[in-house]
Amino acid sequence: MNTLLIIEDDPALSIYLASALESEGYQTICAHSRQEALVITPQPALILLDLGLPPATSRISEGLLLIDALITRAPNSKIIVLTGQKEESAAYEAIRHGAFDFLTKPVPLNAIKIALQRAQLFLRQEEKLHIVGETRIQITVKLADGPKEASAAIEEQLVRSTLSSACGNVTEAAKRLGLAREHLYYYIKKYGIQHSR
Question: Is the pLDDT of residue 54 over 70?
Answer without folding.
Answer: yes
